[in-house]
Specification:
Layout: H1 38-43, E1 46-47, H2 57-64, E2 68-75, E3 85-86, E4 90-91, H3 97-107, E5 111-117, H4 124-127, H5 131-145, E6 149-153, H6 162-178, E7 183-189, H7 197-209, E8 215-219, H8 227-246, H9 250-255, E9 257-262, E10 264-265, E11 271-272, H10 274-286, E12 291-295, H11 327-333, E13 363-364, E14 369-372, E15 375-379, E16 383-384, E17 396-401
Helix pairs in contact: 5-6, 6-7, 7-8, 8-10, 10-11
């Protein structure tokens, strides 16, 4: 992927670094007038800008050469309604925190895509009345941040709701039509067979509406996978599903296929190492696949201890690594070469003091801090008798070793 141009101000001209690649140029509220090549948006790893100890994107860009980030997730308000929020709690309309992060990325010549949906929370496709109102909510996000790319992450439990999926696919088609050049990816669950029944129903919905995104990506993890071979097998099977659903030949199906992995230890205890990422990257590039991304940059750093006590974390990978090892595979998929600085020893961090020990009988509200398993944890919302670290999507945010 080539990075296009640095942000030069509201009237700057843009020069594309990759011949033959369509790019969209639009001004936005964050002051950028820059679009990257589609290949960069296809390589953008996920980053939660407000949760899971958000890393500094500027530091990642300097260390790896990464140019694009997939910010997650836009949801319906937790209290109900058809308006976009970050994580169900922070309205996009009044946001300044995410916009500030985007401005930093723009100032260094990068750009972002925004992912909508994900595993938790209420999705706009569920909350809005129809495809048009769903699209109008997402258009607010595109307009506010001047987006050139957007990702529809359609998975459990939303993709089990056929009316919601009809709204999401319909909204994606409307956005594609109303924002010429917009890069659109659709991400869904992966299985050994490619994708499950609900994923196939989502593809059929897209076919029925005449909607073709830049790619359909699967997430081959949390489904009994074991390393890269099982993932490339799923990608091969998914390619056959795309062929049979849309009537594409193999090459066309690969050109509309993507991979979305999970670095390190998955929620279900699978492990995907740097070597696994290299194998899948080789598969993706050799088959001319459209997308290679992963969940997440928040996790692209080593835990303390490296295996995190055999637990999955939202803030580190639970495998031995250097910071941003996995991001470098995205950079390579983009067609760029990560810098290779002389490694310096990483100093042993001084452990922070442990908070009051977690109690199963205590009631905790958002912001309360406890310690458990030699880690400190912060409550995301009201909770009682939910063990910290039991699930990445649970009520506790890991704040590191203590």
């Amino acid at each position: 992927m080539r990075r296009l141009r640095a942000c030069l101000g509201a009237t700057a001209a843009v020069t594309l670094a990759a011949a033959g690649t369509t790019a969209l140029v639009a001004s936005n509220a964050s002051g950028a007038t820059t679009a990257l090549s589609n290949r960069w948006y296809a390589a953008a790893p996920y980053l939660m800008p407000l949760d899971n100890d958000p890393p500094d994107p500027a530091a990642i860009m300097d260390a790896t050469g990464l140019k694009a980030f997939q910010l997650a997730f836009v949801l319906a308000p937790n209290g109900g309604g058809c308006s976009p929020t970050w994580g169900g709690t922070a309205p996009v309309s009044s946001d300044t925190a995410v916009q500030s992060m985007i401005s930093t990325i723009h100032s260094k010549g990068g750009d972002v895509s925004v992912s909508i949906g994900g595993y938790g929370g209420t999705k706009l496709g569920q909350a809005c009345a129809d495809a048009a109102s769903t699209a109008a909510a997402y258009q607010q996000v595109i307009t506010k941040y001047g987006l050139h790319a957007i990702d529809f992450d359609l998975e459990e439990p939303e993709y089990e709701n056929s009316a919601a999926i009809k709204n999401e696919i319909g909204a994606a088609k409307i956005l594609q039509q109303n924002n010429p050049g917009l890069y659109v990816s659709v991400t869904t669950a992966g299985t050994a067979d490619g994708t499950g029944w609900f994923g196939k129903q989502m593809l059929l919905e897209a076919k029925s509406q005449g909607f073709t995104p830049n790619n359909f990506s699967i997430m081959p993890f949390d489904g009994g996978f074991n390393g890269a071979a099982s993932q490339t097998g799923a990608l091969t099977n998914f390619n056959s599903i795309l062929q049979s659903t849309f009537g594409w030949d193999q090459a066309t199906a690969y050109a509309h296929e993507g991979f979305s992995g999970m670095n390190g230890r998955s929620d279900s205890g699978e492990y995907f190492t740097q070597a696994d990422f290299q194998t899948v990257l080789d598969y993706a590039t050799s088959h001319n696949m459209d997308r290679f991304t992963f969940w997440s940059l928040n996790r692209d750093r080593q835990c303390t201890p490296p295996d995190n006590g055999g637990r999955t974390s939202g803030t580190c990978s639970s495998v031995a690594q250097n910071d941003w090892d996995f991001a470098k595979y995205s950079v390579r998929f983009a067609g760029a070469t990560p810098p290779n600085p002389t490694p310096t020893p990483t100093p042993t961090p001084t452990p922070t003091s442990c908070k009051t020990a977690w109690s199963s009988s205590s009631v905790y509200t958002a912001g309360d801090e406890v310690s458990y398993g030699k880690h400190n944890w912060k409550a995301k919302w009201w909770t009682q008798n939910e063990v910290p670290g039991a699930s990445e999507w649970g009520p506790w945010q890991d704040e590191g070793a203590c």
